[in-house]
Input
Amino acid sequence: MNFDLAPQHEAFRASVRELAQGVAEPLAAEVDRDHRFPEEAVAAAASAGLMGVLIPQQYGGAGLDALAFTLCIEELAQACASTSVIIDVHTSVGSEPILLFGTEEQRRRWLPRLASGELLGAFALTEPAAGSDAASLKTSARRVGGDYVLNGTKVFITNIGRAGVYIVFARTGPDERAAGISAFIVPADSQGLRVGQVFRKMGLNGSPTGELVLENVSVPAANRLAAEGEGFTVAMRALDSGRIGISGQALGIAQAAVDQARALLVARPREQGDDFTLADLATRVESARLLAYQAAWLCSRGKPFTREASMAKLHCTDTAMAVALDALQLAGEEGVVSGSPFERHMRDAKALQIYEGSNQIQRHVIARDLLR
Ligand code: CAA
Output
């Protein structure tokens, strides 16, 4: 067993860290305070090739593996959680379905533009009445000649209004559950597609989240991903690797909280127990990291990883929330002042326990696999 990162992973992590600390971190507080999109950080990530980490070189990407992706998101999140979720959703659920399920023509058409960052990707599964129970979604896609006509409303869509392309899940068949669902590549400039309400959130404020409204949006049949009725499998497979990315995001937020707590304790007189608290925080993050890297390692090797991805997502995001809270407690009054990194980490961590499958859903996926 070898816990060392390979030299290429080490080098990649160092290069992402330099970019994240140099460009994203200095913006993090302002992006949070002003609820503004971190343009500069996303542009710098695109210039450095970070928008196509998982996309093979033949389609213009870096051709790296799931572990590199996890390291990338972890480093970005340590600097700015908003930047990390924008790039995470773009890379995993916003682009990977085209790589995994697209035809050669679809890959050639869309992946180079996603890899370069010319297009930002997004994933439109959730609906107002279909969140955790994704298979009950109602958006319809009716076949009309060589096109599908999409109608429905998607909600809580990350990268809303910024995405150039949405992976949209809609019902094409009579089956009322998973078997009736298909997946579509829907360009953001399609007629009838519009942004609905954009939410003001408690955290991840630089990452836009909102409603996607589809009113008679006509999409060529060539934009359907996989066969009719296979859309739910596309969504579930995309979410498996997406959950590894969210684990990386959680690790980054948690590590930032630990590092800031440590800096505080070095700089001020320590009270009894402070050093034990710090030791507990660091230990929790390190144990969570092992689960996340294991899930990424399994995915990189083409082994089954659904259960491990859910375990990583569950444990890393619960850890991030707990560590952010305890670090804030350690910081004391300084931590609760609006704009302090401690309160930002606490607000940023919360959504991670909810999105890409709530942690109750992760428990369901883990238990289902154990009891199979
Ligand atoms: N990989 C491939 N296929 C899978 C799969 C996986 N991991 N999990 C299930 N499937 C397939 C099954 O094999 C089954 O196919 P067959 O009928 O052909 O066998 C089909 O999908 C249906 O599976 P289930 O019966 O298990 O489906 P279910 O209705 O019981 O739901 C669920 C399962 C796990 C609860 C699912 O609904 C789920 O993951 N819900 C959470 C949704 C979610 O994570 N939403 C996040 C939205 S995106 C977001 O938050 C992103 C963001 O912007 C930050």
The chain has a mean pLDDT of 97. Residues 89, 93, 123, 125-126, 132-135, 158, 178, 232-233, 236-237, 239-240, 306, 355-357, 361, 364-365 surround acetoacetyl-coenzyme A (CB under 6 Å). The chain has twelve helices and eight strands. The beta strands are 121-124, 140-144, 147-158, 165-171, 181-187, 193-198, 209-220, 224-225.
